[in-house]
Amino acid sequence: MxxxxxxxxESQAGATVNASQIDQFQRHSGIGSSITIRDVxxxxxxxxxxxxVSLDIEPGExxxxxxxxxxxxxxxxxxxxxxxxxxxxxxxxxxxxxDQVPTHKRGFGMVFQSYALFPNMTVSQNVAFPLRMxxxxxxxxxxxxxxxxxxxxxxxxxxxxxxxMSGGQQQRVAIARAIVMRPxxxxxxxxxxxxxxxxxxxxxxxxxxxxxxIGSTIxxxxxxxxxALTMSDRIAVMxxxxxxxxxxxxxxxxxxxxxxxxxxxxxxxxxxxxxLQRSGNTVTLKNRAGxxxxxxxxxxxxxxxxxVLVRPERITFSNDPMANAMPATVTSALFLGETLRIEVQxxxxxxxxxxxTDLASRxxxxxxxxxxxGWGADDCWVLx
Length: 384
Ligand code: ADP
Description:
This protein is of the alpha+beta class. The chain is built from ten helices and 20 strands. The protein has helices at 19-28, 73-81, 103-106, 123-133, 138-151, 167-179, 197-214, 225-231, 249-254, 259-264, and strands at 35-44, 47-57, 62-66, 88-93, 96-97, 109-111, 185-189, 217-222, 234-239, 242-247, 269-279, 282-287, 292-296, 304-310, 316-318, 325-335, 339-346, 351-357, 370-374, 380-382.
């Protein structure tokens, strides 16, 4: 680590980089890079941590790798960063192979769960560090650090040491340091998981806004589905070293490809049913107890047993019989303020979780109440 008092305004090679060179770099890096990951395999012994992973990322996209612990997210990020080498496959940035390029020459910004700030430097010196390593002159560095602290709303803390800052503030300093060079690619590995929920939610929005401001391509790793839904342009859901589905958040939530994705992202009611007939993308189904309902399906099958997904907030209920509804008994009812969480047992069928907005006009259901529950064809999705 270089002592901050030891300022020379020189790169390690001794050449001074002036403001216009850095600004030129900034202009060129106004938009993020495209990234192509092709058939990437990384093994540890016989174990495939990433198994033929392919992923195309557009310039300036915010992509989240989402999956349970051990699904290969960090391995994929480390391969991109150059901390590990691929067994096979290739990684291209703006069309150029980079998988043989050393980490420090890839020019990516990086943020990790642990803030890894230099404890003996001020906030401002921490953020200045990458510019100093690149040999930026003092005027350029001061200006760029001030701009970046402003973007991250840290200006008033510039002279503090990291130990005087809260966890959330320290992570914002780490993010500021990662973006001070205006990198075309920023990699973030669970950067918010050490923070409490409220702080996490506010920094999620900040990172989203930051992405709009700097335009870098961001690859973000998390195991937290709500974080992924909030922040991403697209989410790549990983399981056992493979990408199971990549799509926009609403598509992942509404039309998950598999039972794994349906269960991992959001809450789900999964119902076994038999297809009776198909009309375009709508199928008519019968559940175990013989109740008939409709669902949306993009699969071509017109017969056979399937599992369908109904999200808890898509289920409607009434005390009176409704069309296409099933009789059920309330087994649990919780008042949560703005919403109600209700569990019902459908007669002869499944247990279902319902979430709905509290309405002044509707009495709160109680355990043992008899209800009629149902949903529209658009609210029910056939899994593959
Ligand atoms: P995630 O980030 O999704 O939690 P990782 O990419 O860290 O998953 O790990 C994927 C799998 O690879 C895990 O089963 C993990 O135990 C294994 N793994 C990761 N790094 C190593 C290593 N250096 N040596 C052996 N196994 C590893």
